[in-house]
């Protein structure tokens, strides 16, 4: 791309592509979900200001992690293709130095927001936030050694929901940890779809991912597990405590509404199975984006289930 062409692209567009906003629902939905749980299940009084800080902080830190990951991927020769919503460095819109500087600034800004919340909420949030930031900073190294799926499962699933719960209740609970597992699995499915597509390039550059370790057929089974088991886990959380009478709250029956997302899961499964002979050329290439949309739908249904349960209790 020539300097003149580069100048014609707006500043905002360059950095929006660098931040990969299409992926942000993966990290922000747990914040919304955890906040909803805190209010409805934890009986917390909704603190709007703290919620906004937590939400914005998550957006900033996720964007920073995306930029830093792109820097390492590009330097390692992993990023060669672009999609309509990614690839600011590959396109030549920004340099690796600019992306790294942007990531550092965002990590610092997100950390400041975190410190403000810690001063308001307490040390429990400090531990959660410190683990989250550490995972974000070292995400590239984790991803290159087959720990990427676990990293996003924790950061953009469990820790996001738990942190949002703590922000509102100022106490620790296993409810947001366990009840967010289905959503967190779908976040891992997004990354797996991405790594599965890039298996050949990753192998060439000696990058180890779950997709590379499992192989093509193993990756298909793993992907199926990640998109279908969330429905099974929700069923266990709904009916398990009611059947065996353990001292842990059962998920409200309203979570059965998530079954509405099952049809979409089967559509994704079909695209994955037809990866070698796709109906549309981009079906498998953008499976990660389609999985992200599914995760958003599933997360919205989970959040709706919480508030429908709240409405029913008021009747």
Helix percentage: over 70%
How many individual helices?
14
Strand content: under 5%
Low-confidence stretches: none
Give helix and strand order, one letter per element, not per position.
HHHHHHHHHHHHHH
Oligomer: single chain
Structure summarized in a few sentences:
The chain has 315 residues and is an all-alpha fold.
Report what the structure shows.
By secondary structure, the protein is mostly helical. The protein has one domain. Helix content is 73%, strand content 0%. The chain is built from 14 helices and no strands. Helix 10 runs antiparallel to helix 12 (210-244). The mean pLDDT is 90.
Set out the fold topology:
Blueprint: H1 3-8, H2 11-19, H3 25-40, H4 48-75, H5 96-121, H6 123-137, H7 139-144, H8 148-169, H9 175-179, H10 181-197, H11 199-204, H12 210-244, H13 262-273, H14 287-314
Feature tags:
single chain; 315 residues; mainly alpha; 0% strand; globular
């Amino acid at each position: 791309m020539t300097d003149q062409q580069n100048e014609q692209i707006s500043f905002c567009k360059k950095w929006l592509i660098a931040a990969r906003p299409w992926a942000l629902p993966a990290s922000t939905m747990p914040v919304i979900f955890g906040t909803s749980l805190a209010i409805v299940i934890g009986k917390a009084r909704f603190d709007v200001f703290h919620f906004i800080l937590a939400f914005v902080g998550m957006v900033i830190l996720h964007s920073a992690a995306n930029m830093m990951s792109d820097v390492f991927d590009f330097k390692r020769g992993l990023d060669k293709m672009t999609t309509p919503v990614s690839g600011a460095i590959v396109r030549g819109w920004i340099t690796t130095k600019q992306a790294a500087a942007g990531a550092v600034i965002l990590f610092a800004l997100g950390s400041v927001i975190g410190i403000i919340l810690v001063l308001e909420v307490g040390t429990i949030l400090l531990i959660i936030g410190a683990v989250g930031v550490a995972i974000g900073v070292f995400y590239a190294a984790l991803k290159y050694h087959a720990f990427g799926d676990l990293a996003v499962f924790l950061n953009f699933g469990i820790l996001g929901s738990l942190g949002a719960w703590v922000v509102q209740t100022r106490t620790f609970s296993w409810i947001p940890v366990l009840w967010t597992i289905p959503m967190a699995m779908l976040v891992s499915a997004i990354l797996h779809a991405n790594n599965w597509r890039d298996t050949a390039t990753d192998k060439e550059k000696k990058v180890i991912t779950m997709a590379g370790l499992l192989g093509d057929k193993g990756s298909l089974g793993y992907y199926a597990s990640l998109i279908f088991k969330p429905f099974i886990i929700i069923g266990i959380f709904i009916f398990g405590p009611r059947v065996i009478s353990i001292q842990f709250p059962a998920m409200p029956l309203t979570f059965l509404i998530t079954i509405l997302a099952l049809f979409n899961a089967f559509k994704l499964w079909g695209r994955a199975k037809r990866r070698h002979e796709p109906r549309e050329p981009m079906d498998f290439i953008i499976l990660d984006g389609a999985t992200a949309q599914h995760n958003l739908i599933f997360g919205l249904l989970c959040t709706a289930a919480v508030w429908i349960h709240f409405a029913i209790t008021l009747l």
